Amino acid sequence: MKANVICLAESILVFQAPSTISKNASERPRLLVCHDFQGGYNDKASRRGYTFEYWSVCDIFIYFSHRRISCPPVGWNTAASRHGVKMLGTVIFEWKEAMPDLSLLLRGPNDLYSPLKPPLRFSPYYIPALIDLALAKNFSGYLINVELPLDLGFSVSGYTWYPDWLRPTSAAQLDEMQRNARRLRAWVALLRAEGRRRFAEAGRDEDEWTVLWYDSVTREGKLQWQDAVTQENVSFLEVSDGIFTNYTWARPSIPKIEKPDMPGGPSPVETAIESKEVQAAVLPPPPVDDNPHPALAHTVGMLDRARRARTEAYIGIDVFGRNCWGGAQSFRSLEMIGSRHWWQRHLSTFGQSNANSDKSSLANLGLSVALFAPGWTWEHAEPGVLPELKKDKKSIDSSSLESRAQPQRRVWDEFAELDRRFWAGGASTSFALSSNAAAEPHSFHQPLSAYFPARAPPLPSIFLKKAEEACVFYHTTFARGSGVAWYRSGKEVARWQTPSINTDSVLAVSTTSKQDEEAIKKQKEAEEDQARAHVLVGWTDAGVSLPKADATWPHPRAFWLPTAETEAQSPARGVALATPVPDKVDALEPRASVEVSEDVVWAGSCSLKVTIPLSGSGQGRLFLPISWVAIPTTAGGSEEMVIDATALASLEGLDTQRVQVALQLVDGSIHTGLVRTTEASDTGDQIWTNIRTSISIPRGLAAKSTLHSSMSPQATVGLILEFNDSTSAIVMHLGELYLGEGSSATEAVGTASAGSDDVEATIEKKDPMVITWPDFAPAAHFYEVFLEQGDGALGSDAVKRATWLGTATREHSRTEFAAPLAAIHTLLATQKTGTIVVKPFGSCWQGAQARCTLTI
Fold first, then answer.
1. CATH code linked to domain 759-855
2. How does pLDDT run across 610-638, given as a tens digit for each residue?
3. Where are the domains of the chain?
C-alpha cells in the first residue's frame, strides 16, 4: 500500500454491500471477553496474579488496556490459540489528549492538514503496520475504540479551531465532524479489507482477520454511546465484522434509542456500589419475559434491515455493574439477552434436537455477548471493606470510597473461589470464603457457563497436516496459569518461597516524614508491593494454562452404567448407553466433589481431585465425564477410528484394574475398549498409575457427534469406575490425560512419537543466555528446560540431579528460552560444566529431547 492518501470516491469498500460482508457470519451466538484489568495487566510474573482459565466457553478474547495500541503478550496469546479462542488487540483513542493522534491516523504523517474541499480523503499509512504487528505477534485483529468526539481541529490538524469565525458548534465545525466520521469509516473498511488480503497472502484463513467496532461515536462524529445498534452507529457495523455495544442498556438512566418506552433505572452512583445488606439479599432470578428489552429488540430490527447476522452484535455487560446488572448479578443481563434460551432451543442433547424445548421469544434473539472486565473477581473491593451506603441511601461515605481505591490484597485462593463461582458455579468443599467477605453477596444464581456450552479445544495443526507418525491430539494436566510450585513425574522440581517480611510493619508509613509528598507516595507503593508479594507468593504465566475439566464442573455429573451381568453391549466395542438411575444419581451427585489440587500433582502445577462417597451404594459401575475433546473424524479411510487414551491417576479406595478411559458421544453412547494399566511412578506418598485404553468408534457415528451445526465433532472423555460392596469412597487425583490416534483396537497403547534421537540445541552466551532448538515435538503444548549436572541421561531417576530452569512460554518463539547468565554461573560454580536438556511437557513424549553442553 504505497498511496499517501486515498480519496473516498476511490474506496469502494465503504459502499460494499453488507450482505457480502456478512456472508460467512457464524450461525451461533458468541461470547466475547474483554478484560480491562487494572488499567492494563501490571501484575508481576514473580507473584501469583490473575489469569483467565475458562477458555472453553469463550469465542473471542480482547486484550484491552488504555494504551493507544494493546498487543496481546505471548502467554495470553498462546493460551487463547491452544483453546481455539480468537485473540484481538485494541486500538483506542479516548479523552482530549488523544485528539492529535487520531488526527494523525486519519491524515497521515506526511500532511499537516487535510483539505476541506472535495474530494474527501484519508491516509492508509498506519494500516500496514497494524497488520504487520498482528501477523508478527500471531493475533487476529483489533477492537477499534474511538471514545472522543471527531472534532479533530480545522482540516484534521489536531489543533484548536481557527479562524475566529469558526467557533464551536458552528455549522462548519459540525460538517467537519461528519466528514471525519466518513474518513474513519473508510479507514476501518480498509483495515478490514487489507487485513483479510494480507492474512490470505501469509497462508492464513482470511476469515480469521477480525475488526470489531465499539459503540461510541456516531455517523455525525459525536461521542454518543447508543447501547444498541441504531441508525447512528450501524454505518460503522457495515464496514466491520461486528459491533460491541455499550453496556448501560440494561438499566439506563436516560433513554438512548428511538423507543419512548425505554425503561429507566437508578443513577450510576447508586448502583455502582451496593451496601452489604443489599448484596447479601438473595435475589430470585428474574421471571422470563417474552417481550425482549427495547434496546435488544431495536438492535435485532436494525440488524435484520441491514442484512447483518444477529450474532455480529456483541451486547455489552460490565461485570463491575456500572449502571447495569454486573458482578454476581450478571446473570440477569444474560437472561435478558436470551443466551440460555437460544442454546436450549438449538443445542443437540443425546442426539436429539431441542427445537421445541423453549417457547420463550428470547430464544429467537440470537445475539452475542461481550463481557467487559471479568477481572472483577480479582479487583473488586477487598473482603470486609465493601463501602456502605449511609442510612439515607442517597450518598456514599467518602472514606469507604477511599478504602475501595486502595490496592487490594485478597489472598489468591479467595479469588480462585470467586472466579470459579462466577464462571463454573458450585462452591468448593476445601475452601470457604471469609465471613467478612460474605459468601452470600457472591451467591451466583447462574454461572456464566450455564449460558454458553463448552467447546473442545481444536485439533493441533500438525495433526491436521497428517504426519505419518501417530500424533497426540488432546493433552492436559489441568494446569492453571499460576501456581506456587512445579512438578515433573510426581516430584516437585521447583517451589516459590514466601518473602521474609512483616506485612504489618511494612505498611506502617509515617506521614510526618520530612520527605516530600511524591517520595512518600513512592515509598508507600514500594511497601505495598512488598506486602502483595507476601500475600501472593508464587508465579503467573498464562502460557502454561491447559484445558480444564469443563465437563465435570461444578460437581461430577456421573452416570450409572449397567453392570457386567445385565448390560447388553458388544464386548469388542464396549458401547453402553448412559442411562442415569434416578435414586442413585440423586444420592450420588450432591455428595460428590471436584477440586483443583496443588498438593498432589503429577505434572505442572496442579491435578484434578475427585471425591465420591459410596457408602451403602453396593456394587456398581459409573461413568465420570471429565473434559470435552475434539474428535478427528476425517483421518484415515477405514470405517472404524481408533483412539488411544491414557490417564495418569492416583487412586484411593479403588483397584486400578477396575478403571478404564472412555468417550461419550453427543448421542449418549459410551465407548471404551482394551485396557492396560502400569505403574508410572511411586513417589513415596503417592502411587501414580498409567491407565491406557484403546477405543474403537465407527467413524460415521463420531462425525455426527456435534452439539450444533456450526461446531466440530466432539465428545466427553471420562473414566468408567467399577466398585464393589466394600468400597466406601473413591478419592482420585487425575494428573494427566491425553488422547492420540491409534491403528487398531488390539494393539497395545503406547506414547506419542516425537523422535527418539537427541536433537541439538544451541546456546548464545550473552545476558540473558538464549537457548534455541528445532521444534521436534510440534504437537506438544510447550517445552521444559533443565540444566543437568553429572553423568547419565535426564530421566525419572536423574531428575534430582537436574535443575529445572523453567518453561519456554514467555519468549516470542516456542523454541527459545532466556535465562539470566548470573543464575547459570551460580549453578555451575562448582563443576563449571553441564548439559542443557529440553523436553516436551507431558508424559506422552517419552524419549524426545534436545541437548547441548554448556561450559563457563
1. 2.60.40.10
2. 888 876 656 778 889 999 999 987 755 67
3. 6-385+411-450, 499-536, 559-741, 759-855
